[in-house]
Amino acid sequence: MGKNYIDIENDRGETLRYRKHVNGRGLIAHGAKVHPSALVEAGAYVEPGALIAEGAQIGRGAWVESDAVIGPQARIAPHAHIGSGAAVGAGAKIGVRAHIGTQARVAVGSLIRDDESIADGETVATDRRGLRLAA
User: Mind telling me which Pfam families this protein's record contains (predicted)?
Assistant: First the structure.
């Protein structure tokens, strides 16, 4: 049986240890918290300090940076990028290759479409079709 972790060197020359999540085999950094019922698909990365809530799904190749929070039942599509300190509300859906900036906020139940970018620090609320709502 193979080992359940992998060591990766970051841009600053520091070695970070990632464990393979039991549900999906995605890589979870030491210091990240992922609920056992969450799905983190193979090829996805969850960085230190990130929090993935109950029932959330992180797609193949997605990257959740440090201190980001993914709410219950949220769906992060393949190859999406969630910036450091960003928050994705419960039940929100983030599209394929979408980019959520550093410290950005996506409201509960919102839809961020494929290839859409949310700027650093921006707060976004949409309806189920992805149409933005007034703040």
Answer: Hexapep
Burial label for 30, CB within 10 Å (0-12, 13-18, 19+), is exposed
Strand partners, 123: 105
Q: Which residues contact 58 (CB under 8 A, 6 or more apart)?
A: 24, 26, 38, 39, 40, 41, 44, 46, 52, 64, 70, 76
For 73-89, the pLDDT digits (tens) are: 999 999 999 999 999 99
Whether pTM exceeds 0.85: yes
Query: What is the pairing mode between strands 27-29 and 15-20?
Result: antiparallel
Burial class (CB in 10 A: 0-12, 13-18, 19+), 131: exposed
Domains and CATH numbers, the chain: 5-124 (2.160.10.10)
pLDDT tens for each residue of 95-115: 999 999 999 999 999 999 999
